[in-house]
């Protein structure tokens, strides 16, 4: 890691968001400098702006790295991903509940073996970084050690990560089952040891309402009140059969969302993946409680779940940000995820502007996770987790890019055609990450 004395400068095109550009691409919401510069000192952003204003602040013996016409931007933030499902990616032909039984639960059972968990955690973090994802909110398995090894691996790399062990005490295979008491013991220990250590945060993670008993959900709610700065992370209203099942399991709740709300699991720092089958009352309640939705278009399409409604979420003032949801999701790449989000909007007669897609993959996630003062944006004092995208990474990208004029056009070409091949470099706290 960098010492506080170390300073370096990076030149290139720079894209940075300060707020949500919304449907109208509000010009005050973002900065774009065709020729920009970033000064990094001690792992933090010292200054950012047009190169001719920033470079004079560089001193003579400072390393200046010129990225040419490449695009420098904050690292991607993936708000919902399952690291134990790295080996489940591209297991298809089924919808959610069958897919869980057939592929996912068996893969997660293997995490009883700590060596397996450690090997997958290292591969997973390599894959995030090669895709330009510098922070993620991650589900482990029911095994406490699945989260311990992930935190250890993330800490060794200096990464800002959120993770939690899944709580599951019913409706799952016996080897993946904990109990309300065991789950709570595991969570307390993980929170005490890891939450707030280095750049790590804990998330209370009931897998979804179908796999936790009332006693377990009550316990999760109690812990969430006891630790208000700990995250809450789960799934909500992803698939029609799932929603019908929840209605059977919790007949007294007005909706699936209401189940979580009744147990005190709807608050600031709570993220619910999918949020497809919500009504206007649910969306208003999400907004009022400050909870956020992880919009995972590749997973929603791959598992045939449905379409996330951006316009309705905006109308309700609900927070949302992008997520890959690997292994239901079919790519680690937030660029691929933006491309699919754009198509999900199209299928509903809505528009997702390229600028907003880039916002949803960066600052929107940081804001939803309460981390916008630290990551997701270039501002003096923020942590220097950033990436460099090559607009000419493939022959087709280069060809199509050469015919694009405006920033909006260029970003649309990038998100439609690019993937990890376009991620030329990933920096964590100002330090270049070697590619695996
Ligand atoms: N709902 C409950 N568990 C899961 C999971 O592992 N993946 C997805 N996509 N949805 C879920
Ligand atoms: Fe998921």
Outline of the structure:
Helix content is 37%, strand content 23%. With 436 residues, it is of the alpha/beta class.
Rg result: 21 Å
**Biggest pleated-sheet summary:** 9 strands, parallel
- What low-confidence regions span 5 or more consecutive residues with pLDDT below 50? none
Ends: how far apart?
18 Å
Helix segment tally: 16
The helix content, as a percent range, equals 25-40%
What ligand species are in this complex?
guanine, fe (iii) ion
Oligomer: single chain
Calculate the mean pLDDT score and round it.
97
Give the overall shape, derived from the CA principal axes: globular
Instruction: Assign the structural class, choosing from mainly alpha, mainly beta, alpha/beta, alpha+beta, or little secondary structure.
Output: alpha/beta
């Amino acid at each position: 890691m960098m010492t506080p004395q170390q300073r370096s400068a990076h030149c290139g095109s720079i894209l940075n968001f300060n707020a949500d550009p919304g449907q109208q691409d509000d010009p005050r919401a973002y900065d774009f400098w065709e020729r920009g510069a970033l000064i990094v000192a001690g792992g933090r952003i010292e200054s950012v702006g047009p190169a001719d204003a920033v470079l004079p602040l560089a001193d003579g013996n400072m390393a200046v790295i010129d990225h040419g016409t490449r695009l420098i931007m904050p690292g991607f933030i993936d708000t919902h991903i399952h690291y134990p499902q790295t080996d489940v990616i591209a297991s298809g032909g089924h919808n959610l509940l069958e897919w869980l039984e057939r592929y996912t639960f068996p893969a997660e059972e293997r995490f009883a073996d700590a060596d397996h968990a450690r090997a997958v955690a290292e591969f997973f973090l390599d894959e995030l970084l090669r895709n330009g994802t510098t922070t993620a909110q991650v589900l482990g398995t029911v095994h406490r050690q699945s989260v311990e090894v992930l935190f250890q691996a993330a800490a060794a790399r200096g990464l800002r990560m959120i993770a939690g062990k899944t709580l599951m005490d019913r409706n799952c295979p016996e080897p993946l089952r904990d109990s309300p008491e065991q789950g709570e013991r595991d969570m307390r220990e993980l929170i005490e040891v890891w939450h707030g250590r280095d750049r790590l945060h804990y998330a209370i993670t009931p897998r979804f309402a179908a796999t936790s008993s009332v006693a377990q959900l009550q316990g999760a709610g109690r812990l969430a009140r006891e630790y208000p700065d700990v995250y809450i992370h789960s799934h909500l209203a992803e698939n029609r059969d799932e929603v019908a099942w929840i209605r059977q399991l919790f007949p007294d709740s007005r909706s699936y969302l209401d189940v979580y709300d009744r147990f005190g699991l709807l608050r600031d720092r709570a993220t619910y993946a999918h949020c497809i089958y919500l009504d206007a009352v649910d969306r208003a309640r999400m907004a009022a409680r400050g909870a956020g939705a992880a919009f995972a278009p590749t997973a929603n399409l791959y598992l045939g779940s449905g379409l996330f409604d951006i316009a309705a979420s905006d109308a309700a003032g609900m927070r949302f940000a992008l997520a890959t949801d690997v292994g239901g999701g079919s790519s680690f790449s937030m660029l691929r995820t933006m491309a699919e989000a754009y198509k999900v909007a199209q299928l509903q007669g809505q528009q997702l502007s390229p600028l907003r897609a880039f916002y949803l993959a960066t600052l929107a996630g940081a804001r939803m996770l309460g981390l916008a003062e630290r990551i997701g944006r270039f501002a003096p004092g923020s942590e220097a987790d950033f990436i460099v995208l090559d607009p000419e990474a493939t022959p087709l990208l280069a060809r199509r890019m050469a015919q694009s004029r405006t920033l909006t056009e260029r970003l649309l070409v990038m998100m439609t055609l690019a993937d990890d091949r376009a991620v030329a470099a990933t920096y964590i706290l100002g330090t270049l990450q070697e590619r695996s």
